[in-house]
Amino acid sequence: MPSEENTPPITIASCVQIATVMTRELVSVPPDATVAAAAALMTERRIGSCLVMDEDILRGVITEQDLTRKVVAAGGNPVEIPVSDIMSSPVVSVGIGGTVGEASDLMIRHNIRRIVVEEGGRAVGIVTARDVLGFASGMNTILQDLSGMYGTMMFLDQNMQVLWVNRQPVDTDAAGRPGPVHCYELLHGSPTPCHGCPLTLSGTTPERPVRASEIIDKDHRIWQVQCHPVSWGDGNILGVIESAIEVTRERELERDLREHRDRLHVAVEGADIETWYYRAGPDGTAIGADGGVVFAPDSRFSGIGEMFGYLQTRVHPDDLPEFREMVESLVLGIEDSGEGRFRIIIPGGGWRWIRVMCRVIEIAPDGTAVVIAGVNIDITDLTNYQAAIHRANKKLNLLASITRHDILNQVSAIMLAGELLEMDGYLDGNSGLAETIGRIISSAGTIERQIRFTQEYQGLGEADPEWQNVSLLAEKAATEFRENGITIDCACDGLDIYADPMFGNVIFNIIDNAVRHGTDTSAIGIRFTDTKEGGILMVEDNGGGVPVELKEQIFASGFGKNTGFGLFLSREILEITGISIRECGEPGEGARFEMLIPHSGYHIA
C-alpha cells in the first residue's frame, strides 16, 4: 500500500462531475424585465434565483437576496426597476467538465450560493449550495456506513475506475500503483474486467438495475460481487457502489453441507424414515424437509386444528386422540419432546405402524412452539414380530399352565399315597422300604414347590417392558419382610427403570435371598449411581456375604436351598431389557448385587 504522507486523500466530491448534481432546467428573464416580474416568476417556479439572459448570452444572476437588499431595503419600486440594475455580474461559473469539489471551492472563495455550469460558452445548468451540501451529506453517510462493513467496498465511476475504497487489498499489484485504478486491478490484480462481472452484464442505468454475481479470480478464489448505481437529481448516475466479499470458504462449506445432506438422504431413504416439521406462524407458511411431510397450520393456535385436519386422512381414527394429545402438548409448550406408536394409511390402502419421535426446536416468547421437527419410522414388521412372539408366549404359557396343572395333580396323588402309607405304618422304623418311601415323598414335595414357584413367572416376557419406580417397588417389598425384623432403606427417589413388568420380583428375590441365606441380616440398602457405562442399581445387606467361588454359581438354575430358581429367573427378567446383574460384595461383610442399566433404560424425575 502507498504511504499516507505521499498519497493525497481522495474525496468523492473531487471525483464526481458537476453535471451529475446540477439542475438542467434553467429559468431566465431578459435584462429589461422588471424586478416585480422576476420575483413573480421565481415565486411561481418556487426557486431562489434566475438567470438574466440577453438572447443566448448570460449577463448575470438575480437572487432572492438581491431583491431583499437592493430593492426592498433601499425602498425602491420593484415595478419600475429593471433586473439589470440589481443583478450580480460577471457570473461565477464552472465548466461542464468540472467537479462538485471545484464548485464547492468557488462558492466558498466568492461567498456565493449558486454557480452556473457552462459548456461551450453557453449556460447549461446551475448548482446551488443546497445541492452540494445534500450530495456531500448523503454520500458521506453512505460511505461511512460502508467503510465498516465486511469485505471490500468501492465507489466507481462509469468507467469502472475506483474513486473511493474502504480498504486496500495488500495482495495485488494495484494496491501500491499511483494514479487511478480500475476495480478489477485493485481487487484481483487483473488487467481486464472479470468474467461474469455484474457491471459488464447489466450496465449502470436505472432502467437496467445492476445484478449480483459470483466470480472466480486467477487464484481460484470465489468473490461475491454486488453493484448498485447511485443516481442524483434528475436521474444522473453519480457512479456505482460495488461490494466484493470473498466467499471461498463459505462455498466450500456449502459444498460439504450438500455432500452431507446427500449422504443423509441416502441413509434416510435406505432406512425408510419419513421426516417432517411443523412451523407455526401468522402468515400460514408451510415449511417442510425435502421429501418429508408438510404440515400447514394457519397460526400457532388455530394451526393445531389445521394440522390434524390434514392428518385426519392418514392417522388411524383409534390412534388420532393419542397423537393429538402428544402434539398439542408440544405446540402449547407443555412438553419439549414426544414419542409414540401410531397407525397411518399408506398410498394404495392398508395400515402401517410407525414410531413417531419429535422435538421442539424453536419456541416463542410466550413459551409455545414455533417449530417442531420429527421423524416417522416404519415399525410394522417389528410390531408384527412382537405380536407373533406375544401370541407364541401366550400359547406356551397356556401349555405350561396345563402341563403344570397335570404335574401337580400327579404330585398330589403321590403325596396322598405317601400319607396313606404313613397312616398304615409303612414309614415307621428304620427299614429300607420306609427310607425309600420317605425319599419319594420328599422329592415329590420338592417338585411341588418348584412347580408352584414357576407359576409366579408364567407371564415372563409376555407383556411389553414399562417404566417402573424403584422406590415404590422397594416399599412394596419392605411390607413383605417387616415381620422378619429387616430394615430396608431405599435412596432412589424419582428413579424409574425401563424393565419387564416382573422387575418387582427381582427386587423381592434379592431381598428374600438375603433373608434366607444371609447370616444375621438385619438391614438392606438400595441406592443408585450414574456412570459412563450406565446406571448401577445396588442392593446390599449386612449379612455374611457370598463366598468368592459361589458368586457366579448363585445365578445358575437349581442352585440354592429353596427352589433354586430365584436368582436364575431374576437374571432372565433383567436381560429382557439389556440389564445385567452380578454379586460384588466382600465375603463376611455382606452381599451386594449390582444391576448395570443402559443409559436409555433409566431416568430420574
Could you characterize the architecture of this molecule?
With 605 residues, this protein is of the alpha+beta class. 35% of the residues lie in helices and 25% in strands. The chain is built from 14 helices and 24 strands. The strands form 6 sheets. Strands 8-7-11-10-9 form a 5-stranded antiparallel beta sheet. Strand 9 and strand 10 form a beta hairpin. Helix 12 packs across helix 13 and helix 13 packs antiparallel against helix 14. The longest helix is centred in the middle third of the chain and has 44 residues. The chain is rod-shaped. It starts with 27 loop residues before the first strand and ends with a strand. The N terminus is likely disordered.
Helix and strand topology:
Elements: E1 28-29, H1 35-45, E2 49-54, E3 57-63, H2 64-72, E4 93-95, H3 100-110, E5 114-119, E6 122-128, H4 129-147, E7 152-156, E8 162-165, H5 183-188, H6 198-202, E9 212-216, E10 222-232, E11 236-246, H7 248-270, E12 273-279, E13 293-294, H8 303-311, H9 320-331, E14 337-345, E15 351-363, E16 369-378, H10 380-423, H11 432-455, E17 466-469, H12 470-480, E18 487-491, E19 495-499, H13 503-517, E20 523-530, E21 535-541, H14 566-575, E22 580-583, E23 592-597, E24 602-604
Parallel strand pairs: 1-2, 4-5, 12-13, 18-20
Antiparallel strand pairs: 2-3, 5-6, 7-8, 7-11, 9-10, 10-11, 12-16, 14-15, 15-16, 17-19, 19-24, 20-21, 21-23, 22-23
